[in-house]
Design a protein that fits this description.
Rossmann fold, 41% helix, alpha/beta, eight-stranded mixed sheet
Length: 264
């Protein structure tokens, strides 16, 4: 089965985008799938969230400009079957540099081709910057599916309207006709508040089955885990958030038609 590429994106910051990318990658690797986490965010929080240093020259910056293979940037993590293309601050320059280059929206897509053809991974998860700049559009052009984390708060729907509009444009313009909205995951859910319940209900009303059943709870442990360089399932195996991300991973695999692989 061809390797799937999923972009995790929302142009609004603070919605749990990187937290979702890191924890989903860890949970999917834990059930036996080979996962590559591609950190396209200059803040490189997915990189530090997996316990790696932000190292100069380690990112996809040069390969995106056509200088050397992207596969050379893949690094192992402390977790079996989970590898990463780290991010770093120099990715900020990529937005400007790529804008001046030919086929500027296809750079990530083209750089990923040898990695996908090698079938070294079952899934590539791309952590996008919290903006709809050229790096995010590169991720959208390379992806089969888009996973949008939405915080349970008043302006949640505003965050997704722009993303879905761009998704539609990329498909209609033929830039990436296969791009689909894989799903929307509701994050920072607090079942004790009416607001959280109302927002989930409203988003489900708008997007129906595209909204994952699993709700990611707001917990302090999830906020703490990145500072220890660990996904939540390793930092606190018994946290409600660990259970939620494991359920979300199962839903994602089902939607991708990957099912659960036996842990090796």
């Amino acid at each position: 089965m061809p390797t799937k590429v999923i972009a995790v994106a929302n142009q609004k910051g603070g919605v749990g985008k990187t937290t979702t990318a890191v924890n989903l990658a860890a949970c999917i690797a834990a059930v036996g799938r080979r996962v590559l986490l591609f950190d396209l965010d200059p803040q490189a929080n997915a990189t530090s969230g997996l316990g790696l240093e932000k190292t100069e020259g380690a990112s996809a910056y040069r390969p995106l400009l056509g200088e050397g293979p992207l596969a050379d940037k893949i690094k192992p993590t402390a977790y079996e079957r989970l590898e990463i293309i780290p991010g770093e601050v120099d990715m900020c320059g990529a937005d400007i540099e790529l804008a001046r280059s030919e086929r500027h929206l296809q750079r990530a897509s083209e750089a990923l081709v040898p990695i996908l053809e090698s079938q070294r991974f079952d899934l590539v998860l791309v952590d996008c910057p919290p903006s709809l700049g050229i790096l995010t559009l590169n991720a959208f052009t390379a992806a089969d599916g888009l996973l949008v984390p939405l915080q349970c708060e008043y302006y949640a729907l505003e965050g997704i309207s722009m993303v879905t509009r761009i998704l539609r444009q990329l498909r209609e313009n033929g830039v990436n006709a296969r791009l689909e909205l894989l799903g929307i995951v509701m994050t920072m859910y607090d079942g004790r508040t009416k607001l959280s319940q109302q927002v989930v209900s409203e988003v489900r009303e708008h997007f129906g089955e595209k909204v994952f059943e699993t709700l990611i709870p707001r917990t302090t442990k999830v906020a703490e885990a990145p500072s220890f360089g660990q996904p939540i399932m390793y930092y606190d195996p018994y946290s409600p958030a660990t259970a939620a991300y494991e359920l979300l991973a199962a839903e994602v695999l089902k939607r991708l038609g990957l099912g659960q692989a036996p842990a090796q």
